[in-house]
Structures are given as C-alpha cells and as structure tokens.
Write a structure and sequence with these properties.
The complex is a heterodimer of chains A (436) and B (162). Chain A is mostly helical and 436 residues long. Chain A has helices spanning 3-12, 19-22, 34-41, 93-97, 102-109, 117-132, 138-166, 170-191, 213-236, 239-245, 253-258, 264-268, 275-278, 299-323, 341-346, 348-359, 400-404, 408-412, 417-427, 431-435, and strands at 52-57, 69-75, 78-85, 200-201, 204-205, 367-375, 378-386, 394-398. Chain B has helices spanning 2-5, 28-37, 107-118; strands at residues 20-21, 42-50, 69-77, 82-90, 96-98, 121-123. In chain B, a hairpin with a 4-residue loop joins strand 3 and strand 4. The chains are: A mainly alpha (436), B alpha/beta (162).
Chain lengths: 436, 162
C-alpha cells in the first residue's frame, strides 16, 4: 500500500468511539494473571492446534525501554489483546519518600523519571511550596523554566535516539545521544551532575547559574537547531520512515482522554492541551510558544510533535536569555533557607539554624496539596500530605508514563508485532517512573 | 458546588486554591457520575492515604467521619480548564470502594495500584490484581503498619535461611 492509499484508508475508516476502550469483555486488554497465563500456556514445545498463541515479550528486550514486559495474544503475527506487566523496577520510592525530609525528597523523586529529572524536582517543590505558602523569587522561577525547557530538549532528543534505534535508524541513535550529551554537559556545569540533579528545591534552586551561562545556552541553541533540520532530512520526509510510522498505533482524542493519556499522546490525537499554556505555572504566560498538535494520532504524529517541541523549547529558552532578571536564586525565608556561609562563622544562632535545617529539616504546615507540571511525557503531578513535621506523611507521584502505558493495548490491537515495537517507542515510557 | 455533587466541601474551601469535595462511600459513584456529566472528562489521578499514624488535625469538613483510609481522585475538565479533587473515607474494617472504571477506563491501572499498595478492593473492577508487587506477595507496602526493611531481599529459588 502506498502512502497516499494509506492516507485515504485512514481518512475513510470511521473513528472508533471511547466505548472501544471502556469495553470489559473482549477488550484490547488481556486481563489475565500470570498464573492463568501459565495454566493455559501448556507445553511450549507442543503448540497443539490452537490458532491463538500467548507470547511473552520482555521484560528484558531491546525494544521495551527498560524492563517492560508485554503479554501478547497473537493470531499469526497480529496482536489481538495485550497486557503490559510492570513492577520490575519497583523499589518503593513513595514509601522511601515518607522517611526523607522535604530537602532530601528531591533526591528521591529525581530518580523516578530519570530522563527528565528536573521536572520531578519541580513538581515536588511546587507541591511543598504550596503547603508552605511560599513562592520562589523571580530569578529562581526563570532559572527553573530555563533548566526545565533544556531538560525537555534533552528528553526529547533521547526519544529521537531510541525511536530511531527501535526502527532500525541506528545513525539517528548516535545523533540523538550526541546532542543530548551537550545539554547534559551544561547541566553538569550548573548542577554538578549530569542526571539526578536535586537542583530545584523548595524555595528556589540549589545554586545560581554560572557567570557565562548566557554564552553556553546560546551555543547550545546554535548547535541543536541546525541539527534538527538534519533530522528532518534524515527521517521526517524519508519514505521508509513514513511507511513505518504513518497509520500505525492510531488513537483518537476521545479514547486518549478516557484512558487518562496526557502529553504527546493526547496532543497527537488532535487535542491541544498543554499545561504550560492551559494552566500556566512558573512564568509560562510571559513567553511565546506554540502547542504542537497532531491530526491522526499515529506514531508519526507523536514523532513529529516531539521533534517540533524541541524547536519550541529552544524558542522559549532564547526568550529566557533575554528575560532573566537579576536577584536571588532562593527565597530569603528563615523557615526554609539556611543562613549564608559567612554568618555561620560569626553567629552561634546562625550555626544552630544551619545545623537544624540540614539535620531535622524545616516543618511544613499540615494539609494536602497537588501540583502538576507538563513533563515531556505528559502531566506529572505530586500529591503531598503533611502532618506538620519535617517529613511528608505521604508522597504520591502521578507519573505520566504509568498512566500512558494503559493506551498500549489499544494502540497495538490488530497491528503486527513489528509495529508493536514502533508503538512502544512512540509512547516513550520511562520505566523508572512507571514502577517507582 | 455542594449541591451539584451532593457531598460536603472541604473546610478551608477551596483547599489551597484547589476545589475539593468529600462524598461518602455510598455517594462515591453518584458524585463521580455527576462530575463526569458536569464536564470532568478525564480522571487524572487516583491514589490513597493511610491516616493510621497521622498526628495532626485532619481538617475534614463537619459531617465527614474520619476513617483510616482515604482515596483521593483528581479530575480534570478540559473544556473549562478546571480541576476537582474527590476525597472519600474508607474504613479499615471493610476496605472496599466502587470502581470508577465505567466512567473513566483510565482508572484501571490506578485502582490496581491502590489495591496493591493499600489493600483497598474496588468492587466490580475488571482486573483486580496486583500491579507493581509480585502476584504472590503478602501485605500492602504503603500501609503505615507495613515497616520498611521488614522483608529480606528476595531472589527467586534462593532460600531465605540466614
């Protein structure tokens, strides 16, 4: 089938309603426990004369982005039903969070979505700040925006790399890693670490930007922008690439909303929803950017959205270079901020205060709060419950990948296994945040 | 809003700038259906809190009987750009709640996680199994009486005798 024929077929097919995803019986989801699967699996050497085959894919498989396991019900090479089996990376991070102070909490949540750690820290800090009733100073907020948008660039570059690798475009893998490394180098300069920064903290950020940050960021933009055009030449218009992605893994807006999907999956289905624009946090209402929306909701749309979101992020970053005010990078509130180093030598009280903040931590008024940000994968939310002590009573992270994975069986239904690989890649799950 | 969903509102309404309602367990399905009909088209999040060792005042509105567990659902209306949080009390003696799957199919994984971590069963859920922990696990890790470090590191087929 040529591309134009495919386009016509996609356009002609009636759009399935949200009922498709809410079906209980014979839905796309293979609702079967491992024990049941093992019982009907029978002898692997004797397939019998059954038409349907139950196949296990993963958890250790090059295309499953970590340790995602899929149970597939196959008829020939066609996937009928499937079920993502998760939990292989579960380390009880929400439980761990109940034993760490609000200052230490960042080190915990930053390890969840390890491809975009700064967003985890941001959501956690915003929730804690909401409970504390404080707001980070202006410069700190702009620094947060700068770092998060660069993190979106690095995260989407990682997607470009792995998506290329999954589909056999191995050169794309090398290019994606290459550019991402440059962004991570800047992160290392600012935060001290390439990943898992613990840079955004309740009350501001950990340190001010280095003196020559403007030049570094301008260099980054200058480096990455022309490379995106190269990606276009390499992939976007290339017939093999389009054949492989167009019309594969289709979902419409009603289904995506019903399944709780957010981020590029929702936007790919044609719904213009981006928390940065629709529920502005930080200073996103003061910068100019476009929300990229797809039309068909297939893998190709999700690829194109992420590629163009890199461009939009760079656009935001160049506006931040202009807008960055001078000022403090953290709030001067004795409750949450330790006294400056110089005062510790002079004042006993300052020394005690410093010691208390880093050992006991600061107390947070009792209550509950939810804060959400638009991470590269969708809505990343943190629900915090405080009992008035210096450690949260409950830390819950609404991980976008965890919820987005629910779309997988619906995207894969009636497709080929080979397309399944493209679909997993286009959902872009990060297993660290799925399993937490 | 209380009339709209037939449930008491939070005492400090709105709770830190966010709308919260407290339906009772019996009202849970009806309040959710009313919210769904009112334009809250997406279930963003569903989780639970175990208030067993909570030392502070819960801040619940009058008329809401505090119980050990609380299930929290976060809803989103894309049309109006509004959020709504529903908090329901679930007693420890009978930790069950009606599923939201029929209103929002996206509740499936979220409710499985709450079952796995807190042992709250969702009536009529299409796939009431564990999701993060192994199927043969005993206990529910996010309960407050489930100690960290209680379980020795397990490797399949290895004996745990030390």
């Amino acid at each position: 089938m040529s591309i134009t024929e495919q386009d016509a077929a996609v356009a002609a097919a009636p759009a399935p309603g949200a009922e498709r995803v809410s079906r209980r019986e014979r839905s796309a989801v293979l609702r079967m426990s491992e024990a049941e699967a093992a019982a009907i699996g029978g002898d692997p050497d004797d397939p019998g004369d059954d038409e349907l085959v139950l196949l296990n894919m993963g958890p250790s498989h090059p295309s499953t982005h970590g340790v995602l396991r899929l149970m597939l019900e196959l008829s020939g090479e066609t996937v009928l039903r499937s079920k993502p089996v998760i939990g292989y990376l579960h380390t009880g991070m929400e439980k761990t969070g109940e034993n760490l102070t609000y200052l230490q909490g960042g080190t915990n949540v930053t390890r969840m979505d390890y491809a975009s750690p700064l967003f985890n820290e941001l959501a956690f800090s915003l929730a804690a700040e909401r409970l504390l009733g404080i707001e980070a100073p202006e410069r700190a907020t702009w620094i947060r925006m700068l770092m998060c948008e660069l993190n979106r660039v690095s995260s989407h570059l990682l997607f470009m790399a792995t998506n290329g690798m999954d589909l056999g475009a191995v050169s794309m893998m090398i290019y994606g890693w290459r550019e991402r490394e440059e962004v991570l180098r800047f992160f290392e300069k600012v935060t001290g670490l390439r990943m898992n920064h613990n840079y955004i903290r309740p009350g501001g950020v950990a340190a001010d930007l280095p003196a020559d940050w403007r030049r570094d960021v301008a260099d980054l933009i200058e480096l990455i922008e022309p490379r995106l055009t190269e990606y276009d030449t390499l992939l976007t218009g290339q017939p093999i690439w389009r054949e492989r992605l167009q019309g594969v893994g289709v979902i419409n807006a009603a289904e995506a909303v019903a399944l709780g999907a957010t981020g590029p999956i929702l936007r790919g289905a044609g719904m213009a929803w981006d928390l940065r624009r629709d529920e502005p946090y930080l200073f996103y209402d003061q910068v100019d950017f476009d929300v990229i929306v797809g039309t068909r909701g297939d893998c190709y749309d999700r690829y194109a959205i992420r590629l163009n979101e890199i461009r939009e992020s760079l656009r935001i970053v160049s506006q931040i270079i202009e807008a960055m005010p001078s000022g403090d990078y953290r709030i001067q509130d004795k409750k949450v901020t330790p006294p400056p180093r110089a005062r510790i030598d002079a004042s006993m009280e300052a020394l005690i205060h410093h010691f208390k903040i880093f050992t006991e931590g600061f107390k947070v008024p009792p209550g509950e709060a939810y804060a959400a940000v638009e991470s590269p994968r969708g809505e990343l939310g943190v629900y915090l419950v405080s009992d008035g002590t210096s450690v949260p009573y409950r830390v819950h992270v609404r991980a976008p990948s965890f919820v987005n994975l629910q779309t997988l069986p619906h995207l894969m239904q009636d497709g080929l296994i080979a397309d399944g690989v493209a679909i997993i890649s286009s959902v872009d799950p990060i297993m660290g945040e799925v399993d937490r | 809003m209380a009339e709209r969903y037939g449930a008491p509102l939070a005492a400090d309404e709105p709770s830190r700038g966010q709308a919260v309602i407290h339906p009772s367990r019996e009202q849970w399905s009806d309040a959710a259906a009313a919210a769904r009909a009112d334009g809250f088209d997406q279930l963003i999040d569903l989780t639970a809190v175990d208030y067993l060792t909570y030392g502070a005042d819960r801040g619940l509105p009058t008329g809401v009987q505090p119980e050990r567990f609380e299930v929290v659902a976060a809803l989103m209306s894309h049309e109006r750009g509004e959020r709504l949080r529903m908090r329901v009390q679930v007693p420890a003696a009978d930790p069950t709640l009606a599923t939201l799957f029929d209103l929002w199919p996206g509740a499936e994984s979220l409710e499985r996680e709450v079952y796995d971590m807190f042992g709250i069963a969702f009536d009529d859920h299409p796939d009431p199994t564990r999701i993060l922990m192994p199927e043969d696990w005993s206990g529910h890790p996010l309960r407050k009486d489930y100690d960290t470090g209680r379980i020795p590191v397990q490797f399949k087929a290895a004996s745990n005798v030390r």
